Structure formats: C-alpha cells, structure tokens
Amino acid sequence: MIPSPSPSPGPCTQGAVASISDRPGLGRAPATNGAACVALPGTVLIEAGYRNQTTAGSGTQTLSTVPNVVVRVGLRGKNEIVAAPPAFSSRNGIDLASGFSPASGTQDVGIGFKHLLFDGQVVQHALNLFVTLPTGSPNSASGFTAGLPTYTLGYSVVVAASSRVGFSTTQNFIANAAPNASGSPQRFFTYQPAIAGSYALSPSFTLLLQNQWSFPSGPGAGAGDRALAGLQFSASPNVVLDGEFEANLLPAPGLSQHA
Q1: Which of 11, 20, 94, 154 has the fewest CB atoms within 10 Å, i.e. the most exposed one?
Q2: 3-state DSSP assignment of residue 11
Q3: Could you tell me which of 167, 123, 172 has the C-alpha nearest to residue 151?
Q4: What is d(CA 77, CA 41) in angstroms, rounded to the nearest whole number?
Q5: 252 backbone dihedrals φ, ψ, rounded to 5°
Q6: Which of 48, 137, 57 has its CA nearest to residue 90?
Q7: pLDDT > 60? residue 20
Q8: Strand locations in the chain, DSSP E?
C-alpha cells in the first residue's frame, strides 16, 4: 500500500515574515491585526515604522509618529501575544478648521492576544482581542490618549486566489473612546471593516491596496474612510520592508489629509 502524501503546510506554518506581518496599518496607531498568521512558537517578531500625516485646509498641519513598535511573541497552540509600547507623536503647524493645536506626547500602550483558527493552502483566518490603556499624553482634546481603555475584537480572513493574487478582510468591533467637544473622554462603539488586495510583482515585491471604514469615526461624528497603497519588499525570510501612502477619503469639510 502506497502511503498518501502528507498535506503541504500552510503559509502560517512555514513562518515567512511576509505572511505574518500585520502591516499596512491605517491611522496614527500601528496595526495590531490584519494578518491571519501568528508568530511561530518561541519566535519574537518586531514591527516598527515612521508615519507622517499632512492635513491641509485654512492652514497646514503635520503629525509625525515614531517608532510605532509592535512586538509579537509566538506561543503554542497557534497563539501569540501582541504588545504595543508607547509611540512618540508630534503635531506641528496650525489648521484653523481642525481645531487641533501643536502638541508633542506619547500614545496609549496596548496588549492583545491572537489565535489562528485555520491555516490552509488557500484560506487562513484568525481571531484577536486587543486592549489599549490610557497612558498617553498630553491628556487633553488635542493630546494623544483616548482617555479611557479601548477594546477591539477582530476577525481576519486571508484568501490566496492564485500564486500572485491575494485578498483579505478584517472585521473590527471596537469599544472605543475619544475626547468629545468639551474635551472629556467619551465612550462610543465603532464597527470597522477593511478589505485588502495584494499582487506579487516578483518573488520579492508585492503591491498592497487597502480600504478601511469606521462607523462612526468619533463621538457624534460620521463615517470614516481611509485608503492605502503600499509596496512590500521581502529582503529575506526574516526581514520585510514596506512603504505606504494613505489618503483620508472622508475628511472634515474644507480639509484634505494624507500620510
């Protein structure tokens, strides 16, 4: 009797960083989900980056955030711990329409857990929970803290349509918080779906396109819609670099915003 061949391991089991990386992310907080794969047991994955956002209207304002670190530690049972140390943010310039004054400070820290539900050749999906704590500064309407803990439950699905084309979606349900018009932190709930597509230009370069909606985007605010295009370079099985351009498709009236 000829033994049947064992199935090939899925991309998550193979452990390539390109299949594990959570980037690209949207907004000033680093991405903490989006990929279905988790780090392999005993593996530590570090993601870091720099983001510069420009808002233009009656004036121009820039918001820089660095180093946007996310640390992921692989555990047994297809699990991982996700930690986001504080990132430094600096806002410069004045935009009279936005009402945000120049400020420098740190963002809230976060901790989370992800479980890989299925790792197949074509489909992978995962569930994650991420919590942020109001450690950021300054603690004001123009600061970089939510003012209250936030809780995100996310579900991600990745589909390999071919050897070059891939699609993914992430569905986030967020018990969110942000300063209201009076400057006090206010709890609100956000549904945040995202869809993404990727195309492998070569074994090393991949084009990424993503769109993310937020319903609502803030206390008493309407929907948010951010689009992103990125180019990812796999320098080695353990090193991945990417560059991204992000546009706010639903900015406040009289403003344009990109990063």
Answers
A1: 94
A2: helix
A3: 172
A4: 8
A5: -60, 150
A6: 137
A7: no
A8: 44-47, 51-56, 60-66, 70-75, 79-84, 88-93, 103-106, 109-119, 123-133, 150-160, 165-179, 185-200, 205-214, 224-236, 239-248, 256-258
Record the tokens describing residue 85, joined without a space: 């140390």
Distances (CA, A) of 185 to 150, 176, 182, 189, 219: 11, 10, 9, 13, 9
Among 20, 4, 14, which Cα is nearest to 156's?
Answer: 20
Burial of 154 by CB count in 10 Å (0-12 exposed, 13-18 middle, 19+ buried)? buried
Query: Does 257 have pLDDT greater than 60?
Result: yes
Q: What distance lies between CA 22 and its chain's CA centroid?
A: 7
Omega before 67 cis (within 30°)? yes
pTM of the model: 0.90
Over residues 156-201, the pLDDT tens digits come to: 999 989 889 989 999 999 999 988 777 789 999 999 999 999 899 9
Closest to 11 (Cα-Cα) out of 42, 47, 36, 43: 36
- What's the whole-number average pLDDT of the chain? 85
Q: 14 by DSSP, 3-state: which?
A: helix
Q: Rounded CA gap, 55 and 88, in Å?
A: 19
